[in-house]
Write a structure and sequence with these properties.
The structure is a homodimer. The first copy, chain A, is of the alpha/beta class and about 220 residues long. In chain A, about 15% of the residues lie in helices and about 20% in strands. Chain A has a 7-stranded mixed beta sheet. The interface between A and B is medium-sized, with 20 and 20 residues.
């Protein structure tokens, strides 16, 4: 939801290409409201996981920017959950993905992983030594929703690692040699958003930056 | 679209009632993405045109606030257009509606009409002497999209009256004795948004206010 709702705001007859897994393309097709994106201007391109593809139609068409999607631990979108399907809610590989974007001109690359429920060895290996990683910063502690009185679900139940603790994202990334680490997708209950909070200090001491609206990054 | 896309941002387990025409309820049902609004918390209430109904579940439950929806000239939503259906694109009465909200405690009321393609006598009669009208302020001139280079369609083709000129909304409302008139739904091409512009001065001289984010009104 966080990654498709904005499509409804991109309907000003602006041409662009929409890259997504077949599962997401199918979901968009099943919701005719997304026809606000004129098919003559917005081409929907289904792409397979673990395949590198070139980003087309960029304003700086001379560049050589490629992308790759890969599965990360997560969960099916809340509104598509089917509790009858059992404890994993019928999750498939395409339910939660990360992105790697590579500029073949400069050789620089970054990862964009806004939702991630755990750090298996395979993902840690992928991120090792990366120039830049944007990572899921939803909550500080796993039971933050209960703690702040806004909900009952744990971060894990929502498909997110928390930042702190021995199984949190800060610990999981500590020894991966990532050059620049930036938390994104931060819930409004997360005290790391508060400048001057001890949690903010702890994240920054561990080498993390907290993303902000309008942030620009040069690799 | 302008009036339903925001539903996707109201999914934080907040209970409320959703009032809409049957045509809109049906469209929401046809788009499963709106199931992000948990049916246990958000009740969808289909209401008929020209019927007064009480607004339930308001925080100040003691008040007696009623609403009524009525058809206004307009058009079918762009993404639902079917050019095969002929020049009126199959428009039905429920494609564009206005709202009247009445507080039976104070007797005060206001109209909310964010899209309106013309001012027939029946609508002028309805608005005559109103305490407050929020009205469609999409464009200043009919061919504003072409004029500013952002599109080909006229305001009328998009289902909107322009503000200026002999068939514009300022002229149409001039003699209706409305106590307070506020333009809403203003496109980013409309020069009335610019403080100090001659168009802004002309609208204000005609007794109109230009709505702004965070505006609060006491009737």
């Amino acid at each position: 939801m966080d990654h498709i709702a904005g499509l409804l705001s991109l309907r000003e007859r602006q041409p662009f290409q929409l890259y997504a897994t077949d599962r997401v393309i199918k979901m968009l097709t099943a919701n005719p409201i997304f026809n606000v994106l004129d098919a003559g201007l917005v081409r929907r391109c289904g792409v397979a996981l673990d395949q590198t593809f070139k980003l087309e139609n960029r304003p700086d068409a001379g560049s050589e920017v490629f992308a790759e999607m890969f599965a990360v631990p997560g969960k099916v979108a809340l509104y598509m959950e089917d509790e009858q399907a059992g404890p994993n809610f019928g999750t498939v590989a395409e339910d939660t993905v990360g992105l790697k974007i590579v500029d073949r001109g400069t050789g620089r690359s970054f990862f964009y992983i806004p939702g991630c429920a755990a750090m298996p060895d395979s993902l840690a290996l992928r991120l090792r030594g990366a120039d830049l990683v944007f990572f899921d910063g939803t909550t500080w502690i796993d039971n933050e929703m209960q703690h702040t009185g806004v909900g009952q679900k744990t971060a894990r139940r929502m498909g997110h690692m928390c930042m702190s603790g021995s199984d949190g994202s800060i610990a999981a990334c500590a020894s991966l040699g990532i050059r620049r680490k930036i938390f994104i997708h931060i819930n409004n209950t997360n005290p790391v958003l508060l400048e001057g909070s001890p949690q903010r200090a702890e994240a920054e001491d561990a080498g993390w930056e907290i993303a902000w609206d309008g942030m620009e990054i040069v690799l």
